[in-house]
UniProtKB/TrEMBL annotation:
The lineage of its organism: Eukaryota, Fungi, Dikarya, Ascomycota, Saccharomycotina. It is found in: Membrane. It is a multi-pass membrane protein. CDD domains: MFS_SV2_like. InterPro entries: MFS_dom (IPR020846), MFS_sugar_transport-like (IPR005828), MFS_trans_sf (IPR036259). This is Major facilitator superfamily (MFS) profile domain-containing protein. The keyword Membrane applies.
């Protein structure tokens, strides 16, 4: 067995922490294995593992504070922005194509590629330079690029700025859960599930703005669609961008985020980590017994040593490669990582393909099923998206009220129930059935989305969390690049794609039962 495969098995839950003995005359911990309550996994750096255990203890000791509450809402704004800007592009695409004479969804391809590149760039950068800079900068850049997109006068510049929107916004889903998780006490980690509620809010707002502007400020067809009668899509971008700008300012002024303690410890900055934790405890009158002497007594970490002392392109590349290797450190970790990546990819195929081809499929089933006006289409879409707000709330309630289900159980419920309702679309006969089934499908899908978004960063180690989260999100972004091409060239008037979508969602729901880790009973290193 290689060094990287030699995990240090440690006690994970609060009850079993008492089994960790420390000699008064020896600063190193004596690790006692509890086979029923193991830490999720640890790195090959045992000093880092021991320091992370002390940081976890300090975070649990401080508990949930008003700082965590502010961070919850401000991190949620990143989820809000991601879906708001993605839906912004999809909602106006038809009218932009009318104006510039396109039929292929080229703008969708560019924003999807931007989201893919952004997820990898911001996520991997967060493991190298820290969470704070990327957390603040990604949202600010998103708002600026969105406002500028509304002023574009050609398809080329429009697509370029959609790529930039995707690139800037692509870091939000990667970073927001990482930042919040690395400050969060273990008993409150179920709150990560509720981030998808913000995702639904962004989706509803994007559709509502499209409903407000597009029916009254858009051209009727591609035959005659000059800019002066097709201003609706520009108004949609301006208003969406302005809202994101307000949120980015709130991030900079309300929470004044400090670097996460786990990142600091992972990079040999123990004094800063202790100062931050002690500062939070002092501000909110909480206890925090962690001291710098305790961390120093454990020695120096080695895992990021080359990068810290030899900053260069080669050193950075090697460190990124090393972070990826940590995600495949042994058989169990590899199994977890592969299943997560596969789940994200299949989700990225199933859900966007469903939303891309469904309107066309319904249109072939007669006017009694699908709305015949632009306003009617957006009205039905708004109802469905509003109902989706219930999905993350249901997921959070299931985890809180029925803890024995765990993350894996709720993932399975969300995936399998979504599959059943997707398949139900082949039997709808009326517009009311269309809206009802669409609404329920969105809600059940968001049960799965909510838990997967929370589960993914929970089971990656802190030292490589940004990298693991980035690659996972990148897989679903890669699928999002592929699905518009599938929808464009396939026979979307048949029911075959909907069966494929349902099967993908059902399979990943069942795959969740094979995930080796259950964060509801294990602490994260």
């Amino acid at each position: 067995m290689s060094d990287i495969e030699k995990e240090v098995v440690r006690v994970s839950t609060r009850n079993s922490l008492s089994n960790l003995d420390v000699d008064d005359g020896d600063s190193a911990e004596k690790l006692v294995v509890d086979s029923d309550n193991q830490e999720l996994f640890s790195s090959e750096d045992t000093v880092l593992d021991r320091k992370m255990k002390l940081v976890n203890d300090a975070i649990d000791e401080i508990g949930f504070t008003p700082y965590h509450l502010k961070l919850f809402f401000l991190s949620g704004m990143g989820y809000w922005t991601d879906t708001q800007l993605s839906y912004c592009e999809s909602s106006v695409r038809t009218f932009v194509n009318y104006q510039f004479g396109y039929s292929f969804p080229v703008s969708n391809e560019l924003i999807s590629i931007g989201l893919l590149v952004g997820a990898l760039f911001w996520g991997m950068s967060a493991d190298l330079i820290g969470r704070k800079l990327a957390f603040n900068l990604s949202l600010l850049l998103s708002s600026v690029f969105t406002i500028l997109t509304g002023a574009m006068s050609s398809m080329t510049t429009y697509c370029i700025f959609n790529f930039l929107i995707g690139f800037a916004a692509g870091g939000n889903l990667v970073l927001d859960t990482c930042v919040f998780l690395e400050y969060l006490p273990h008993k409150d980690q179920w709150l990560l599930t509720l981030f998808a509620f913000f995702w639904s809010i962004g989706q509803v707002i994007a559709v509502a703005l499209a409903y407000a502007f597009l029916p009254n400020f858009s051209c009727d067809s591609e035959d005659y669609c000059p800019s002066h009668i097709n201003r609706g899509w520009r108004y949609v971008y301006y208003v969406n961008g302005a809202m994101v700008l307000v949120m980015s300012v709130l991030r900079l002024t309300v929470v004044q985020l400090k670097e996460t303690p786990k990142f600091l410890v992972s990079n040999g900055r123990d004094a800063e980590a202790v100062e931050i934790l002690q500062g939070v405890a002092k501000k909110y009158n909480r206890s925090c017994s962690l001291t710098l002497d305790q961390l120093d007594a454990l020695g120096e970490i080695q895992i990021n040593d080359d990068y810290r002392h030899h900053i260069s392109f080669k050193g950075t590349f090697n460190l990124v490669k090393h972070h990826v290797a940590i995600l495949f450190a042994n058989h169990t970790i590899s199994r977890s990582t592969i299943l997560i990546f596969l789940s994200w990819f299949m989700l990225g195929i199933g859900y966007p393909l469903y939303t891309s081809f469904l309107p066309i499929y319904l249109a072939t089933r007669g006017s009694e099923i699908s709305a015949t006006t632009v306003g009617g289409v957006y009205r039905d879409n708004l109802i469905s998206n509003a109902v989706s707000l219930g999905g993350p709330l249901i997921a959070g309630a299931l985890l809180y009220l029925f803890p024995k289900l765990g993350r894996r159980g709720v993932l399975c419920i969300g995936g399998v129930s979504s599959m059943a309702f997707f398949f139900g679309y082949t039997q709808i006969k009326t517009r009311a059935e269309n809206v009802a089934l669409s609404s329920i499908s969105f809600a059940t899908m968001y049960i799965y989305y909510a838990v997967l978004y929370a589960y993914t960063p929970e089971v990656f180690p802190s030292v490589a969390r940004g990298t693991g989260n980035a690659i996972a999100i990148a897989f679903t972004r890669l699928a999002a690049v592929i699905t518009p091409i599938i929808a464009y060239y396939s026979n979307t008037s048949s029911s075959v794609p909907i069966w494929i979508c349902g099967a993908c969602i059902g399979v990943i729901g069942l795959l969740a039962l094979l995930f080796p880790y259950e964060p509801s009973v294990h602490r994260v290193v």
